[in-house]
């Protein structure tokens, strides 16, 4: 068996290099075809009709006028008479027609009668949610009551983080053709290999009769794993239309209403500490919603990262609302937990009149990785110039513009998922790796190519990578920062297995044994002896009419033992803001992200991903919020105008500091997608508190909320 | 000018339009609309003019009408209902799918094209209204087969992730640099303010636009940093 | 979007003839940045759309002895880059640049900016301009963070126009043309707070076209606009103020202070302007004028902050106009 371990840092020729993404030109020139770009012959367009009510019973539905319309090929009722719809946007019917405008006109001709029922779409005020709540977790450790009594300082606060949506730029949907026996499926998905099972069940054919393909996808962030109701219904429309392909993508409004969101968390938190800044007790009451199903939270994860505090009392309540359901959202629950924890700790530090950085340093022993967090806090402080710029809360001067600094922390697993890869070496020297994974835009394709090129000892450009198809070896869904670990291991093993076979083939010609050979710089040579070598091409020509095809596999549960990958990323984010205290407008000056992520396959793309995560945090901290209206049950900002994302001028400067020290590198590869999206919201919220001398009780930190926190205005109810 | 002039009262036009909406502009309705019956204007002249407008005015649709769009310098004939946007026409009828449909309400910039030299949102322009204009799409940037320097700068600076906003960003950058070849970083921020990205690629975009503005963009397969 | 007829007249008389007697008959298309979205959302569904961009006479900026004439289809970008306007009407240029999207400035027109419909999210979600339900507006008890703090209802939306406050402060007028003739209206009177669902928020009839804007000579007046915005990316202002000052010997001889995004119309703070007369502009007088400008504000449950933002906008606009920002 080959030695799969990674080459030492200084010996890597392709891995660890800042290689530009391989599909970059295709995307930046508009040539990359996303599945929403497909225009196959005979294409039909499907339009979804959804509920205008937050809660209602459908008493009658009549599709006959729509069906009669010229150009309409089929209509499917998804929820018919007798069914309850439980949020605005709940699916009612789907229409297929020869053009999108016809389908849209036809959908409007479907007559639905609703018996409107009571709804609840707000969860912030728990007292108004009676009958819609359920206990969802309780933890007590130590003796919190005693600890609070004995504490030198106790800080109490309220912290809220509202529902936000994924707002993927490419909406959810697919192009699908289904003739009753076989289906060809072009979804926008994070799960090329795994999405077919439920579709197969839904349309009643064997999973092997579904061919799924996706070259590029326009954003998922955790919302694009499952087979959707619409996929199944679109398939049925295709079948009913003689197998013609049907294009079914949500419109923007639907995308924001029903394609997933991140649960809110509202909280009342009490924390206690000693004079020297040691955190001694944590008490929290939290509540959250993720739609009709309530809103879960792992109560035992609090306080986030500083979980080893001796005394804790925690309870969590789930609130069921008549709003679209939540889905995994980049580091599920962690940004919320980081936000409420770091804000509560920051408030305690302020109460103790202690510098926040000193407070965190004092308490790193309560984390699972004290040395890592200590290093990162100090490193972040150096980059953001903490020691020079920091001041105690509210001591940010007397001018109109007040500056402040804040800290947020993160942790994540990121262990690679199950993945299989097939590596091929052809007799003409060409090589290929194939795996049923997907590139969400994080650079998976490029990273796989780097790992493969490293193993083959070939230039990066000479490796062909095939991904994005369910007929390739099965690879896991891209979620939870599990992809890079999974695909790197399977690719490493497959390629080295293939190279090993090549060694066996050419060893006699070099007068040696297979295990004495290495593949390096385009040659097969006796280890360390370039004089006894064959060029890669010459070596491959010995395959004659044959080719080498070898598999490699990552089995997640064994992976840590093998040492190629691991789990457990940690990071610290620090923010520097300026607040105009007359208007409450917050300007982000700088966001620093110090992140440990083990062995880095491609620092250029890793940094990009962290920049992106920081920007998502900025959106969440300062702008993003789903606004639901209890009066009407509507989500009033299911658009990109009042659902606010940051633009290029809103993000200040972002500094990413990858922890590339050898001791981190030797841990192996860790996924990075989630962790860096966690701490930024807290960092920015704390920086604002530091600047203005008051806690804004929820994010996003809007002018409204800043002015209310400062007492400039008397009241605030949004 | 419109390539098709039709009697607006004629509802028997060849069309796929499902809802054959009757024109409100029967002569009688039209005259009432103008308040003619109240005798504000001289009746004789007005009636003549009104008749001309009602029967021979340059009105097209509501069914499909043939139009010609000049896309990347080439005239392209296509049949659209007046309500079709330029974006849906490009994507659905002409297979120019670089411009993306994201917000579909003139906010996010993913559909950015250049019209007569200026950036515009294709989702919020009627195709029929884009006749006679020079329409530049991202497909027209790299006709020689070689990537456009702005596209190359986006790749060099990793100014994209999922890439769905990228064609719009590249076109917005092109519009900016055509107008201001050497923008400051502040001008880049302002000039790119009509485009939104969800993955968060703005840091790379800033660098890419600055690199593109300096000229001589060379493909950088790997950074040596 | 419902199907419609499209007309592309090249002369104004022709265009006017193509309009109808009601808004559902025909709507004017200029930049389209509002109309097309509203049609997509079925907020309006005209049977005919009349493109007026091909009417050459409606386009362009010209200086006349009576001031500056801006044709209705002049784009916001053309406005912002016009040297005459840049030199004399900084308040208008600043207001235009507050529309931070270059695409929107290239597409959107000056006439369209004045005639665009409110962005009230109840209106845009199909609840009508006044968001009435059972004879009562949904707004006071609903999500009103972006709504009006002046006017007292029943209209609670805010006038969306970026240019209107500046134009009102500059004493501008608009020309409204119909087949039966033309009329000239002060921009200040062009905007009305509707009392019922069937009244428009602008004094424009379905058979009329807004053809031009006339701004009187700046004649040494000093003007400025200040805008509080949440985002640098394309966004609506939270509050704005435009001021125009005539200074004599360092003292205010005449002033006009107009706030935007605080009421269903541009909100003229006449009392504050009156109070300023005879004062020099200092941090203190500007602050006091700001306080006077928001006197009588009636914030709703979620928008008390806008009173503060309006006040600060006035202060900062005054300081900017006086060259003290």
Which short descriptors sum up this protein?
heterotrimer; A: 718 residues; alpha+beta; 7-stranded mixed beta sheet; 27% helix; C: alpha+beta; 4-stranded antiparallel beta sheet; 14 strands; 23% strand
Q: If you had to describe this structure to a student in words, what would you say it looks like?
A:
The complex is a heterotrimer of chains A (718), B (225) and C (325). Chain A has 718 residues and is of the alpha+beta class. Helix content of chain A is 27%, strand content 26%. In chain A, a hairpin with a 5-residue loop joins strand 16 (265-273) and strand 17 (279-288). Chain B is of the alpha+beta class. In chain B, 31% of the residues lie in helices and 13% in strands. Chain B has seven helices and seven strands. In chain B, strand 4 and strand 5 (118-121) form a beta hairpin. In chain B, helix 4 (149-156) crosses helix 7. Chain B starts with 26 loop residues before the first helix and ends with a strand. Chain C is an alpha+beta fold. Chain C is 30% helix and 23% strand. In chain C, the strands form four sheets. In chain C, strands 4-5-10-8-9 form a five-stranded antiparallel sheet. In chain C, strands 11-12-13-14 form a four-stranded antiparallel sheet. In chain C, strand 13 and strand 14 (267-268) form a beta hairpin. In chain C, helix 12 (283-293) packs across helix 13 (305-321). The longest helix of chain C has 17 residues, at 305-321. Chain C starts with a strand and ends with a helix. Strand 1 (18-19) of chain A pairs antiparallel with strand 7 of chain B.
Which SSEs are present, and which pair or pack?
The complex is a heterotrimer of chains A (718), B (225) and C (325).
Chain A: E1 18-19, H1 24-28, E2 44-50, E3 56-62, H2 64-68, E4 72-77, E5 84-85, E6 91-97, H3 100-109, E7 111-116, E8 133-141, H4 144-150, E9 153-161, E10 164-165, E11 173-178, E12 183-187, H5 196-203, E13 210-212, H6 229-240, E14 246-249, H7 252-258, E15 261-262, E16 265-273, E17 279-288, E18 311-319, H8 334-351, H9 356-362, H10 370-384, H11 386-389, E19 401-412, E20 419-425, E21 431-434, H12 444-456, E22 463-466, H13 483-506, E23 517-520, E24 523-526, E25 529-535, H14 536-541, E26 548-554, H15 556-562, E27 569-580, E28 585-596, H16 603-622, E29 653-659, H17 662-665, H18 680-692, H19 703-710
Parallel strand pairs in A: 2-14, 12-13, 17-18, 21-22, 28-29
Antiparallel strand pairs in A: 2-6, 3-5, 3-7, 4-6, 8-18, 9-16, 10-15, 11-12, 11-14, 16-17, 19-27, 20-21, 20-26, 23-24, 24-25, 27-28
Helix pairs in contact in A: 8-18, 12-13, 16-18
Chain B: H1 27-33, H2 43-56, E1 59-60, E2 65-71, E3 74-80, H3 86-93, E4 112-115, E5 118-121, E6 134-136, H4 149-156, H5 166-179, H6 185-191, H7 202-213, E7 222-223
Parallel strand pairs in B: 2-6
Antiparallel strand pairs in B: 2-3, 4-5, 4-6
Helix pairs in contact in B: 4-7
Chain C: E1 5-7, H1 12-18, E2 26-29, H2 35-40, E3 48-51, E4 61-64, E5 67-71, H3 76-81, H4 83-88, H5 90-97, H6 102-107, H7 110-115, H8 121-127, E6 132-133, E7 136-137, H9 164-169, E8 173-178, E9 181-186, H10 187-190, E10 209-215, E11 222-229, E12 237-248, E13 251-260, E14 267-268, H11 270-276, H12 283-293, H13 305-321
Parallel strand pairs in C: 1-3, 2-3
Antiparallel strand pairs in C: 4-5, 5-10, 6-7, 8-9, 8-10, 11-12, 12-13, 13-14
